[in-house]
Amino acid sequence: MKIRFLVTVLFMTSLMSGCSQKQSQLLIHGGEFQRHLELAEQGGADAQNKLGWMYVRGQRISQDYKEAAKWFRRSSGQGHVHAQYNLGQIYFQGKGVSRDYKAAIKWFRLSAEKGNVDAQNKLGWMYVKGQGVKANNKEAIKWFRLSAEKGNVDAQNKLGWTYFNGRGLSQDYVRAYMFFNVAAERGNKNAERKKSIVAKQMTLAQIEKAKDLSIKWIQNQYCWDTDIGDCRKKAEQGDAGAQYDLGRMYDNGKGVAQNYKEAVKWYKQSAEQGHAEAQNALGIVYANGQSVAQDYQEAAKWYRKAAEQGVANAQYELGLLYAKGQAVLRNFVMAHMFWTVSAISGHQDAQKNRDIIAKNMTVEQRKESEKLVREWMQKHE
After folding, report:
1. Which of 76, 166, 186, 229 is deepest in the core (most CB within 10 A)?
2. Per-residue model confidence as pLDDT tens digits over 178-191
3. Whether residue 190 sits in one domain with residue 232
């Protein structure tokens, strides 16, 4: 079927050799692409952002990061908050443009100041790492908190880690446990493990206090503890965080009747906008065959996207796929590499598996894994 489709496209392309490139694109792809292209060329900021995403994903058009950057830039120039975040990601990753952390900071900040939770979280991370700006833990915490207050799970997890380590603020195990607990309640396995680590340093009274604070935080911040209509409205308007929250609600049956198909629907919409936790959740869905046909290739695709954004659980799951040879060729070097990267973020199972598999590897294989780890960290951190 794929070969037949390719032959058809090539045949159509040859017939249209006298047409302009734009006309060819419209004739081949039609429908959704044509509508967005026409609106984008008329100056529609939302259409320009959506067109950029179509080029990023290779949806109904060949994947082209340069074209994506062009449309994100046009939309961002009109103040489109999501396009500004997307353009920041383009510069951060160096796809379609030269990697430029200062430019990434500029667009993340513009988006973050308008309330984009993913941009706020990303900005916080860049202040932690000193990418494009001078490292500043207090500034990082400011942006993590703004993102966490709007329900960003990764930001909640990072806040827990800053309180646990006392970076940029006084060490506070109660607050650390609270934020880890909040993130864990929304499915962040890394936060669940960190919660267990910090609990070993606490008294029972402190743990009870932290749990009480968690409940209060959840009641004030979680999408599923607010009006479901308001949450759904935000999700339908394209808010990636609300879409992920709604997916979690349907996945867990919190605030709504449990419905895995609805969960997958909202996870997909959120994941396609680049929401890291939604991408990880979608990987889990496909790996487990939950309301969809089990598909390890799809699982690997979404795990990789989440892993590239620093989700430790996705990195761990990728390691499992390589160790078992599911969707990819069995490769102990790659498994060891992904488990090492995940372990660096505190994933305990990844650390255990890495140490076990290392016993079955040669010295050369371990050295190769170490090299790949360094390259991964330089590229994605």
Report:
1. 76
2. 999 999 987 888 89
3. no
* Amino acid at site 25: Q
Same domain, residue pair 340 and 373? yes
215, 126: one domain: yes
Total-model pTM: 0.53
Q: Which of 220, 248, 263 is the last residue of a domain?
A: 220
CB atoms within 10 A of CB 377: 12
Query: What is the b/e burial string over 142-178, where b = at least 16 CB atoms within 10 angstroms of the residue's CB?
Result: bbbbbbbbbbbbbbbbbbbbbbbeeebeeebbbbbbb
Dist CA 206 CA 10 (whole Å): 67
How many other C-beta atoms are found inside a 10 Å radius of the C-beta of residue 70?
17
Please report, in angstroms and rounded to a whole number, the separation of the first and last CA atoms in the chain. Answer: 39
Residues 328 and 321 sit within 8 Å (Cβ to Cβ): yes
Residues 211 and 231 in one domain: no
Q: How far apart are CA 137 and CA 135, in angstroms?
A: 7
Last residue of one domain, picked from the residues 186, 220, 254: 220
Query: Helices 332-344 and 363-380, interaxial angle, to 10°?
Result: 50
Q: Could you tell me if residue 86 is inside a domain?
A: no
Q: What is the mean pLDDT of residues 77-102?
A: 91
Backbone dihedral region of 31: left (phi > 0), alpha (psi from -120 to 50 degrees) or beta? left
Could you tell me if 305 and 323 lie in one domain?
A: no
CA 380 – CA 131 distance, rounded (Å): 11
CA 136 vs CA 88, 133, 141, 167: distances in Å: 19, 8, 9, 10
Q: Are both 127 and 189 inside the same structural domain? A: yes
Dist CA 225 CA 34 (whole Å): 40
Q: What average pLDDT does the structure give for the chain?
A: 83
The number of beta carbons lying within 10 Å of the beta carbon of residue 40 is 20
